[in-house]
Design brief:
single chain; 318 residues; globular; 2 domains; Isopropylmalate Dehydrogenase
């Protein structure tokens, strides 16, 4: 039986509606899952006609808003479009929590635009964690060649060292280990843990975080039975993970440490996964791209990859 996947339409004035329509036109996607779009059917049909794309099929859409396409301007968020995109997320979480869908996949939202609806969260991930009552969650981004999990997410560089603790790093390794066993069919995931500083501190020469914080976390993880190694020099770790296939995942201390190599390899087909939730949530690894909204130029590759990964994760969980 094909899993039911709830797909949020994202920001109505961004590329979300377009990439959803393009993904649903893929026969491969239709073969592996049953899509249910949480969005605005009238707007989807308007954009499909405008871009000469196949419209949604009967039963594809749960209509949660009645936006007037004539009043909306591509790339220019308004309060009504902001309210709508938040409602799509809330309904998807509700469906996933009740078991009405096997997983949820989210199209992009704009955080500044969402603030028009009173949205007070840094992003999708934190909002969904709030809705599910999840305290310990982590952002994973990945593709076929590389998967990375972040200890800290959207934080200024100057704050990162003081935000890192041995317990936070240990929890990241633990969530990664549990998630990869459950959703990626790995009996003993091989987890690389990056250092914070050049050459992983080089015995304290370039920093103390490795010896004081990261190494104790890795040691605790190994004593708990996890197959984690580190702290490793970041400049060689990704080569070992991608080219030598030594690791299944790389735990990174901060956003760009993981996202730069990830986007180098998976700029178009990267997937954002929230680990640690009681539900399965994947997302595209890009933003609303207001500059190309409703123009037919948006690539659906990340949405297609997110849908495939959600279906695979749902199958393995089941």
């Amino acid at each position: 039986m094909k899993p039911v996947i709830a797909i949020t339409m994202g920001d109505p004035v961004g590329v979300g509606p377009e990439i959803v329509l393009k993904a649903l036109s893929s026969a491969k996607i239709r073969r592996i899952l049953r899509p249910v779009v949480l969005g605005d059917e009238g707007l989807l049909r308007h954009i499909a006609k405008r871009l000469r794309l196949p419209p949604p099929k009967k039963g594809d859409v749960i209509n949660l808003s009645s936006l007037d396409p004539r009043r909306l301007k591509p790339g220019q968020p308004a309060r009504e479009s902001a309210n709508a995109m938040v409602a799509y997320i809330e309904e998807a979480v509700c469906m996933a929590g009740k078991g009405d869908c096997a997983a949820m996949v989210t199209a992009p939202i704009n955080k500044k635009a969402a603030s028009l609806a009173g949205f007070g969260f840094p992003g999708h991930t934190e909002f969904i964690a709030h809705l599910t009552g999840t305290k310990d969650f982590r952002m994973m981004l990945g593709g076929r060649s590389l998967k990375v999990v972040l200890v800290t997410i959207h934080e200024p560089m100057k704050k990162v060292p003081r935000l890192l603790t041995a317990e936070k790093i240990f929890k990241t390794i633990k969530i990664t280990d549990e998630s990869f066993k459950r959703y990626f069919a790995l009996k003993r995931p091989r987890i690389a843990v990056c250092g914070l500083n050049p050459h992983a501190g080089e015995n304290g020469l370039f920093g103390e975080e490795e010896d004081a914080i990261i190494a104790p976390a890795v040691k605790k993880a190994r004593l708990s039975g996890m197959n984690a190694v580190g702290p490793l020099p970041p400049d060689t770790t990704f080569f070992r993970a991608v080219n030598r296939k030594e690791f299944d995942c790389v735990v990174c201390m901060y956003h760009d440490q993981g996202l730069i190599p990830l986007k180098l390899l998976h700029f178009e087909d990267g997937v954002n996964v929230t680990l640690g939730l009681p539900i399965i949530r994947t997302s595209v690894d890009h933003g609303t791209a207001y500059d190309i909204a409703w123009k037919g130029a948006a690539s659906p590759k990340s949405m297609i990859a997110a849908l495939k990964m959600a279906a695979e994760m749902a199958k393995r969980k089941a």
